[in-house]
Known about the structure:
The protein is an alpha/beta fold. It has 21 helices and 18 strands. The chain has two domains: 5-248, 3-Layer(aba) Sandwich (Rossmann fold), CATH 3.40.50; 255-530, UDP-N-acetylmuramoyl-L-alanine:D-glutamate ligase (3-Layer(aba) Sandwich). It has a ten-stranded mixed beta sheet, with helices on both faces. A six-stranded mixed beta sheet has the order 3-2-4-1-5-6.
Amino acid sequence: MAVTEIWLVRHGESTANVAAARAHAAGADVIEVDHRDADVPLSPLGEEQSRALGAELAERGVDDVPVVLWVSPYRRAQQTISIALEAGGLTEPPRRVDERLRDRELGVLDRLTRSGSANLHPDEEQRRQWLGKYYHRPAGGESWVDVMLRLRTLFADVDRIQDADRLVIAAHDAVVMLAMAVCLDLDEPELMAFAEDHTVANASLTRLRRDTLGGPWTLEEFSGTGHLDEDPDAAVTNTKAGRTTPVSEPIPVTPNLLRGWALPEVGGSKYGRGQVLVVGGAAKTPGAAMLSATAALRVGGGRLTLAVAESVALHVAVALPESGVQPLPEDDGGHVAVGAIQGLADDLGSADAVLVGPGLDEPDGSRDLVAGLASAVGDETVVVLDAFALGVAADLVDELAPLRGRLVMTPNSGEAERLLGRDSSDDHTDAAEIAERYGAVVSLGGVVAAPDGRSWAKGTGAGGLGTSGSGDVLSGAITGLLARGADVAQATVWATQVHAAAGDRLAVQVGPMGYLASELLGEIPRVLVEFGA
């Protein structure tokens, strides 16, 4: 008898996982936890995930053959397997607690977010970028190679097991990923390519198999979470393009969350507060671009330029004297014409944040604008797509790819359906899928989703916001905050909440319905003060 199967279990969601998600969402440097890493317990959701895992282990007949159990000494891993065995009605096999299965040690980077690592230990961050995750060993911590070395000694012991066919290991995401790498003999490029597209979900199951003692291992399942999908009380997971990504409920946005996620300090000049370019405004719809442009100023954006159809450019310049105006060529119908982007090279190249879409009303000219953005804007320019620009973006995924990580999209439900190529489901699911597909932060119906899986839900707002021009105000507010230096997620979350809170103020003053989008503009600075900006 020899071990021919290894079942690797990652622990359920822990209280530290929850704290880390909140810290990342708030842009904090430090993850606030109440325990040292070895003593971190499961969250209530993690306990429920463990029960769902236990039912799955029982259904799969984990104990149909002789089994041994090896477990990390860390509390969350111990809890996960104990709850799972009890929930599945399984007899506990011989348990061995092995310190080689502990989580990866992070040393000086322990309890820090990525931004915290960069801000508090910039030298370590530079070393990480130079060496890569595989070899980077933070001071007092371990590299992936270090973890693999201790796992190699552990797997040497596996071949000495003579009284079991199956080994169950309960440990951590790094242990699961690197144990698989050791068994499959993956080198650095192979492992990093795999890790780029795969994550180890909480309470997931990974299975390896070999035919004989000493034979090669094969991967039969990686990060399986079907048991969580079937349990309404356990976390949901999405699988897209070979990637398994845990999806949790959106974090509610509150004034306290925003105060703890402070916007960057503004500069003393208009250039110090960022340069904004709004591109839109066909001959019949210049008002949409003007609403967006004014909103960008109301949130503190600096130098503003409006690019609108040439027949209305003079009128816009008079109506909005705070803005420079760039006339765009138009066709006989007053639509912004194909080739208009050629006259915007200087403005696009110098802008800190560019908004395209408000007031555009024809597909050919809009498609030409959106398709040329990535090659025309600066290397660090952030782009926001709204309105008609989103209607053509579904056909321009490749052209927009260079903007991944510095792109914001603000679709309504109809535009979301076009971007997805299917009927809408719920705002959270749709926003998350669009975010992943385009590498964009997405604001959809009060939910904000980032491509890394984070999401937020606005904590206020009512039906009165569903009025003409309201979306133009939102996209302009996002653009202004981006120009001020906020990152894409922060700007979108802040603007979405400020936009909603401005609507609440007008609902009291005017009524729950009937206030105008232009009236939102005057409330924005007051709401920002209330939120501590």
